[in-house]
């Protein structure tokens, strides 16, 4: 169920292999993010049904970019955007593998193509399959950056949210990202990261 201007709309899911955000997790996540949502640029990696980005748009985010590798899931995201009335230039779906897309976009740096859903992003949601802990660490490491600065895709005061199995927590420090908060819901944990100024910050 969606809150915000698309209140009450239900989203469809591709099938049993997809783990959409539960209402409880989503409610808490967006209650925490609420002060930063107005006008935010939102990046949803491993977007699944698009529930995270769609909720963000409904609650006031300016734009949302959704990266999803599965073709069927991309069709479901498009359907969910249409049924919530949020389809349009502010919502873009890209079919791509998250690590490859992130590496390409990060390498482009300041030459990243302009457009309504271009970075830098204020909020990034990472929700890879629970059984692929390497993928989550790789995404965080790419966003954490190197050579003394985080990824150019992140705004200076960005927040990165990693959704993961509670027993498979990612590192508290990854590059220039530092864990600042955790919330657990049964088997699911949300870990919140912020960029820091230096490796010692």
Architecture overview:
With 201 residues, the protein is of the alpha/beta class. 29% of the residues lie in helices and 26% in strands. The protein has helices at 23-37, 51-58, 71-83, 98-108, 133-144; strands at 41-45, 63-68, 91-95, 121-126, 154-165, 173-174, 177-185, 188-195. An eight-stranded mixed sheet has the order 3-2-1-4-5-8-7-6. α4 runs parallel beside α5 (133-144). The radius of gyration is 16 Å and the shape is globular.
Compact description:
This protein has 201 residues and is an alpha/beta fold. 29% of the residues lie in helices and 26% in strands. It has helices spanning 23-37, 51-58, 71-83, 98-108, 133-144; strands at residues 41-45, 63-68, 91-95, 121-126, 154-165, 173-174, 177-185, 188-195.
**What percent of the residues sit in helical stretches (DSSP H or I)?**
25-40%
Report the end-to-end length measured between terminal Cα atoms.
39 Å
List the quaternary state of the chains.
Answer: single chain
Radius of gyration: 16 Å
**Number of extended strands:** 8
The helix/strand series, from N terminus to C terminus, equals: HEHEHEHEHEEEE
Q: What is the SS-derived class?
A: alpha/beta
List the helices and strands and how they pair.
Elements: H1 23-37, E1 41-45, H2 51-58, E2 63-68, H3 71-83, E3 91-95, H4 98-108, E4 121-126, H5 133-144, E5 154-165, E6 173-174, E7 177-185, E8 188-195
Parallel strand pairs: 1-2, 1-4, 2-3, 4-5
Antiparallel strand pairs: 5-8, 6-7, 7-8
């Amino acid at each position: 169920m969606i809150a915000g201007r698309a209140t009450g709309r239900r989203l469809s899911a591709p099938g049993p292999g997809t783990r959409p955000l539960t209402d409880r997790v989503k409610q808490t996540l967006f209650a925490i993010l609420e002060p930063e949502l107005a006008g935010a640029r939102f990046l949803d990696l491993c977007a699944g049904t698009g529930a995270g980005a769609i909720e963000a748009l409904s609650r006031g985010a300016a734009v949302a970019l959704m990266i999803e590798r599965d073709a069927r899931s991309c069709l479901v995201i498009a359907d969910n955007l249409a049924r919530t009335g949020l389809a349009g230039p502010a919502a873009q779906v890209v079919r791509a593998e998250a690590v490859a897309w992130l590496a390409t976009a990060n390498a482009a740096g300041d030459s990243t193509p302009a457009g309504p859903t271009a970075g830098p992003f204020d909020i990034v949601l990472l929700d890879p399959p629970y059984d692929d802990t390497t993928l989550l660490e790789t995404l965080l490491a790419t966003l954490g950056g190197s050579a003394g600065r985080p990824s150019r895709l992140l705004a200076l005061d960005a927040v990165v949210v990693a959704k993961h199995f509670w027993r498979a927590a990612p590192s508290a420090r990854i590059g220039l990202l530092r864990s600042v908060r955790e919330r657990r819901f049964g088997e699911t944990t949300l870990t919140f990261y912020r960029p820091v100024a230096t490796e010692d910050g």
